[in-house]
Amino acid sequence: MTATRTWWKTGLGLIFTALMLFPVYWIVNVSFTRTSDLRKSPPSLLPLNPTLEGYTAALNQQLPHLTTSLILGVATVVLTLVIAAPAGYAMSLLVLPGRNALGFVLLVAQMIPAVVMAMGFYAIYLRLDLLNTLPGLILANSTVAVPFAVLLFRAFMSGIPRELIQAARLDGAGVWQTFTKIVLPISRNSILTVSLFAFLWAWSDFIFASTLNRSGDLIPITLGIYQYIGNNTTQWNAIMATAVIASVPAAILLVIAQRYVAAGVTAGAVKD
Amino acid sequence: MMTVTHTAESRPDVGEKADAAVPGNRRQRSLGPRTAAALFAAPLLVYLLVFYAFPLYRNIELSLHDYTLRAFVQGKAEFVGFDNYLAVFSSSTFITAFTNTAVFTAVSLVFQYALGLALAVFFRSSFRLSSVLRGLFLIPWLLPLIVSASAWSWMLNSDNGIVNAALVGLGLEPLNWLTSPGLALTSVIIANIWLGIPFNLVILYSGLQNIPKDYYEAAALDGASSWKQFWSITFPLLRPVTAITLLLGLVYTLKVVDIIWIMTSGGPGDTSTTFATWSYREAFGTGTPDFSPAATVGNLLILIALAFGLLYLRVQKNQEES
Predict the structure, then answer these.
(1) Are residues B62 and A82, on separate chains, in Cβ contact within 8 Å?
(2) Are A153 and A84 in contact (CB under 8 A)?
(3) What Rg do the C-alpha atoms of chain B give, in angstroms?
(4) What pLDDT, in 10s, does the model give residues A146-205?
(5) Is there a contact between B149 and B263 (Cβ–Cβ < 8 Å)?
(6) By Cβ atoms counted within 10 A, which residue in A2, A183, A266, B6 is the most buried?
(7) Do A7 and B123 touch (CB under 8 A)?
(8) Does B295 share its domain with B146?
(9) Cα of B268 to nearest chain A Cα, Å
(10) Judged by CB atoms within 8 Å, which residues 121-180 of B form the interface with A?
(11) Distance between CA B200 and CA B195 in Å, rounded?
(12) Same domain, B70 and B179
């Protein structure tokens, strides 16, 4: 392929990407706009007169919510891994009766709408006094990640060469030691992919937060933004500044872990 | 958000063979293989019972009783059989929500798929920066939905939105994207298409990688144009991936609440209400929660999602067998 031909494609690619990412650019642009310029018509395309007032307001009001979201994300990851990794091991490398049926149940579980789960959880939490608590929200968020995680672990672990498992057993390793010393270290990439998705889903969750945690003190950042939109429609620069801050984990993960993201998405639909 | 294919079935059974090879004395020293497996899977089984089966059971119970908030707290509600279902079917919202769900899902899928495929084909030939740009296309999918939804809300704002500013700049009339009954559904569909492109792009791109390059070389030697190559090689060979992508997309799109709720709350009136947002609104969207109709709509939604979900599993299984 000639150089001119590929340059032409690069140009077109840049245009497509710019179009696709325009809303993202717009978030950043508005976040730097002065409050007095927000109602300007037409809006300026570049933050020519940038200000940090949006960010100051966002950080002043939203910092506790960011901490809540961070705890929520990390706890969801831990809970998901603790439940999913052993189960994936049992379904792939051990003799678990009924594991195909279990795999089917997990696939179906992923198709249940979150709004339905939220109602069921609401009914249960009301009795258990778990409404508006962080543990309640962590449990609810883990239901999004657990079925995905178990199936991902099962798919990966069933590809581990069985000679390795046999060798470990012959060396006297029990089922537990085989799991912790052999299977888990080999599954490092799957653990990363699972952690990444569990964190992002919990961090981005709106439905569970807005139903199970409506009047709690510890509200996550997504609900913080939502309440902002409701109460404070004049300060869109602060809303967008919060949105930028709330997108930081996604940006970091995209940069450092893009291949795990792609791995997680395609694990869904395409066979090797 | 996504599903993982069955790969365990297609591979040799590692567990049983490994166990067969273990000498008997070792097996006696530790637990029996089935017990060990059951112990490892126990947390998941308990988890599924408590956090999946029980909420779903509660949901069915809600839909068969007449739960007001008071009855909800006290736990005493009258059993009404299928009255809630009859009420939902005869509700004036039902036809609107049904039509909106169908339009929202179908239009979103068609455009997400078409644009995702066009981009996948475009990115297939590697050029300078191609993998970087392809990575950037993932951004909308990774952003929290509340972020994307509020960005679209502000861009489509009637008075201060950039979209209306652009329309005025082109000499056209500004539109009430989110507040006019005729446009609200279109607006949330546009935002949802934008959100779905990355998912389609990634899956279709990896599907394209599995089509052997020789086919294209042979076709090029025969003088087939790129357009013809697409329709006679790419599209037919991509059919299995297409089926999976569309069915998964369908199951996900049926569930969408956040984007619609944040942008329009299903309004004005019911004009952008889908089954999922209807259910959300009844239970949590108003000051007085009405859980019984909400659970009823939710259960209908589960039935629809399951029907397509089972179709998806069937398609996937057929593909693995072939």
Answers:
(1) no
(2) yes
(3) 25
(4) 999 999 899 889 888 888 888 888 888 888 999 999 899 988 888 988 998 899 999 999
(5) yes
(6) A183
(7) no
(8) yes
(9) 16
(10) 122-123, 125, 127-130, 133, 135-140, 142-148, 150-155, 159-160, 162, 165, 168-169
(11) 10
(12) no
Question: Do B77 and B101 share a domain, yes or no?
Answer: no
Q: How far apart are CA B120 and CA B134, in angstroms?
A: 9
Token pair of A174, please? 């029990």
| Structure tokens belonging to residue B75 | 């736990």
Quote the CA–CA distance of B225 and A143 in Å, as a whole number. 49
The answer on B207 and B108 residing in a single domain is yes
Q: Check whether residue B48 and residue B93 sit in a common domain.
A: no
Q: How many domains does chain B have?
A: 2
Phi, psi (degrees; rounded to nearest 5) at A187? -85, 20
* DSSP assignments along B95-131, one per residue: HHHHHHHHHHHHHHHHHHHHHHHHHHHHHHS--TTHH
Query: Can you tell me the distance from the alpha carbon of A188 to that of A180, in angstroms, rounded to the nearest whole number?
Result: 12
Partner A, chain B 59-78, Cβ-Cβ below 8 Å: 59, 62, 72-73, 75
Residue carrying the six token digits 């979209």: B163
Which ipTM was obtained for this model?
0.85
Give pLDDT tens digits for A211-233. Answer: 998 777 788 999 988 888 877 56
- pLDDT bucket at B321, cuts 50 / 70 / 90: confident
In chain A, which residue ranges form alpha helices assigned H by DSSP? 3-20, 22-31, 53-92, 99-109, 114-128, 134-157, 162-170, 175-177, 184-186, 188-204, 207-212, 221-231, 236-246, 248-269
Query: Do B139 and A243 form a contact (C-beta atoms < 8 A)?
Result: no
- Which of B41, B257, B313 is facing A107, going by the closest CB pair? B313
Where does chain B have alpha helices with state H? 14-21, 24-29, 33-48, 54-64, 69-74, 83-90, 92-124, 130-136, 139-142, 145-155, 162-169, 184-209, 213-221, 226-229, 235-237, 239-255, 258-263, 275-280, 291-321
Q: Which two tokens stand for residue A38?
A: 């927000």
Domains of chain A listed by start with CATH number:
67-220+249-267 (1.10.3720.10)
The span from the CA of A93 to the CA of A54, in Å, is 53
> Scanning every residue of chain A, which has its alpha carbon at the shortest distance from the alpha carbon of B250?
A111
Question: Structural domain of residue B29, as residue ranges?
Answer: 1-81
- Rounded to a whole number, what is the distance in Å from the CA of B128 to chain A's nearest CA? 6
